[in-house]
Amino acid sequence: MNRIPKIVATFGGVGYLPLAPGTWGSLAATLVYLGLGWTINNSSWLPFLLILLSGLIYFLGVWAVKKLQEEWGNDPSRVVIDEACGIFVTLIPFAFSITNAILGFILFRIFDIWKPFGIRKIDQMEDAAGHHVMLDDVAAGIYAAVILGVINLWL
User: What's the average model confidence in pLDDT over 141-147?
Assistant: First the structure.
């Protein structure tokens, strides 16, 4: 009954990997970003695709979390769809490059783990609709994008 929400929430099963599933989910999303960037020759389409993916993944993630909350609890570590959304949010404003992918991954993981400047408050919210699970990673992605933007100014 909950098979599809589990596939969505675990980003295709990545969330079941042992040791640091959030990092695995972030890495999988970064690899998706790299695959998209190498596949799409016209890089002006990449930000548009990332916006679409971020929105789609956000709402699919909220749906899956809501479906699974009773069985899995409030925010289990195997739910990594939120990390995928956060990575895509991080990389939206930037030109495709392996450097941006690596730095975006590192910065996102730092903000996702550290949870500064209100991210922790979002993470600690509990709502029946599941938005809090997704929103803290969107916020971490925004913070990571700001720092990546500063870094890009210097590179």
Answer: 98
Q: How far is residue 15's CA from residue 117's CA, in Å, rounded to a whole number?
A: 26
Which amino acid, residue 86? Answer: G
Alpha helices in 19-130 (DSSP H): 21-39, 45-72, 81-91, 98-114, 119-124
**What's the CA dihedral at 119, 123, 124, 128 to 10 degrees?**
140
Would you give the distance in Å from CA 116 to the centre of its chain?
Answer: 17
CA quadruple 141, 147, 152, 155: dihedral positive or negative?
negative
Taking the whole predicted model, whether its pTM rises above 0.85 is answered as yes
Cβ neighbours of 146 (radius 10 Å)? 14
> What is the tens place of the pLDDT at every residue in 106-139?
999 999 999 998 888 887 887 767 888 999 999 9
Interatomic CA distance for residues 17 and 53, integer angstroms = 23
